[in-house]
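User: Show me sequence and structure for the first protein, then do the same for the second.

Assistant: Starting with the first protein.
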Amino acid sequence: MKKTMKILLVSFLCLLSLPGCGTKSTSSGDTIEAKTYPFRIQLSSTLEVTESEINLYFVNGGDVPYVALSEYMPFVGSIYEDPDINIPAAKYEITHPSEHHTLVTRTDNSSFMDIDTDKDTIEFVGMDYFTSVPGSSLMLSVITLSENGRGGASNLLQDAGTSYDRSGNSLITFDLSEYMIDLIEKDGECYIPLQTVNDLLVSQNYVFVVFNQQEVIASGYSADLINDMYKAPTGTMSEGFANFNYNELRFMLDSFYGLKPEHDIDNFGDFFASTDLLLPLSGTDPVAFDKAVRKLTLKYFDDGHSGLLMNSYLSGEAQPGDTDALLEILKDSGTSSTALSGDIMRIKSIRENYYTDRPDFAYLSTESPWNYEEYGDTAIITFDSFAVNKQDYYKEADLANPSDTIELVSYAQSQITREDSPIKKVVVDLSCNTG
């Protein structure tokens, strides 16, 4: 499988074994410890935070959190739901056709996920369908795309419902045994590491799910709830979790990073071993791990789009000194000026002084992230993110004072094409776009 994926890395979180959990033996002699935690969800900045509980499971006294598929798949389906535009939640049927096999079928199409807990493999038939927005007539329909994964663009366009795709030979198998990631079946229940199921089914919908030993947080790309993970104490990783952390990173990158051929990478295990990244990425120091991921994305990838979005909660929030360290990494690596500007701004955004320093990096000396200006026969359109903030642009749009991408582009179009317009050239300034 080859997919191009924007790498949005929230560093994998260190988890410590917790005493006092209920213990039961599995048929293989393993033990599973169950613990219930608060579960808070905010899939978009426009939605209220919902609060519930979630069970996490720990195997043989370890600290890698697992989820039970029958309990977790309803949440996975809920991330698609948007009542405002009539998008329902995805629904799944879980069966056990034979020993060591768990079959998860999307009830609204023919796609399914087959989990073999004996071989530690996960096989998809129609993975694009399995992860598509319910009701979409196309696997990759433009009208279902939005930055928060909730079909926001459907506010603007309507699906005629007459197009269709054939999936063809869409069998995709992930062999987790190559990464020493253990899948477990017990008493008709299938257990998968929380991070693994999130990498496969959740993260591509621009939703982050993190566990900080105190609670589980599910946050949409545009929501601020993710920042609450830093309320937990900093610390270090156990050796067992560090091993899982490293192997899960290899699995995610081997499976989803789409520029391996361009970087001459056969697999990331060999790649890490040939660089100075192996020890910090496989070690127990979360600060060293975060710095190594930053170096991986900015120095070795340098694709202008990949980057470390947030530190692990064990490392703590980015501090002012992080900017200086980032500059040293980038200068030593010869990173392009575009990537340099973008990643400096990512750190500054975390430090909450984005607009103060923005003029140092923007094409124009403007503090506004949404701007249209004309200089002679040249129009300059400046925006720092792709955002859809309105429910109805026909009624609510304020073209004279744009507050999102669509308003800005609409206003720019009206000015550039107005009667007797002097505009002959257009510059789109994305120098402070953080991806």
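Switching to the second protein now.
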Amino acid sequence: MNLKKQLLVMAALILLVFSAQAFSQTNASISGSVTDESGGALPGASVTVTNNATGVASKVLTNSAGVFNVPGLPGGTYKISAEMTGFQTQVKTDLSLVAPSVLRVNFTMKIAARNELIEVSAKAENLLLESSSSVGVVLPEEKLTELPLVSSNVLDLIKVMGGVNMTDSPTFGADRTTFAGISAANVNLQRDGVTVNDVRWGTGLSSPVYLNPELIGEFKLVIAPVDAEMGRGSGQVQVITRSGANDFHGSAVWNIQNTALDANQWYQNLTNVATNWRNQEEYTLSAGGPIIKNKTFFFASWDQQIVKIREHNINPQILTKCAQKGIFRWFYGYQSSNYQQVAATPATGSRSSPWTVKSVDAQGNPVSPGNVPAYMTGDPLVGTPAPLEAASVFGPLAAGKTVAMLGN
């Protein structure tokens, strides 16, 4: 492959990397109408929608009915203006657009004697009407960074949203969590329009992709009904990845959780039992800005989590000294088990399926289960103390060696 072809391949790969988010991005749109004071349509009016953060502008003309539509807009704050020869130019600012909604903005143009500009804060007048029939909550980028999160996972924000019921269950693996009465198992989790549910769990609240607040630009919870363009699920959690803007921004976050900083639990105060030691540190670095102002942008995020745990009162199960030598013991008429075995039920057991009993204590000393059980019908030892027996994987025991002499 010559140098020219290599450069073309590299350029194509770079283009795919930078455009991957654009292909999967969940976008919104703005539509509306432009009329004169009498309500008559103004075809050919120029409508410009500008993203405040990136400076990217989209320009369209109204059709014969005076209607315009600007699709493919990422979430953010916008400014929209309408211009027509002979009419006052109107500008509406502070339009908060969340994906994947459709916002309707209408203009009523007044005849101008000279060049005039009327600027209105749409945020103050609450002029926007969302045309989606879905019911839910949207948290923009600034809210995601303001709300406290102990776990640094935006999925925990579900706990504070209306319509979500989490009865006696945590966020992840919560089989009793409901969204407006619908089980979380039927809720779809999407990132940039792509499903990222963790299929290992019967819940829509777990994702194999860690959703750090520094990475997310918008978080939307849809209770019902689900937006048709977003596909499956009786409810949905939609997250949008943050993108760069015309200004350079970055952050560095160090989140530490240590048992020394935790409040003691009531039961631990009562029993005076030491807690298991845990130290969890999370480092997050993010940066974004323009590559070509008003045209191309970048955003990068790096996140690392280091967890160290030390548990107290660990009781590992190991072979007794006797078993380590290849000698295994059991009580006649019983099936032997370790010291944690629950006591057998007297109503069960037979010759072919004997009771399973605890045959040793925590130190490996033999523990007698009692007499030979009655299901050993016809055996002369029934009702007498069950003898301890042994066998070696290396052959018969040495002459003169008894079970009692084997030790632990």
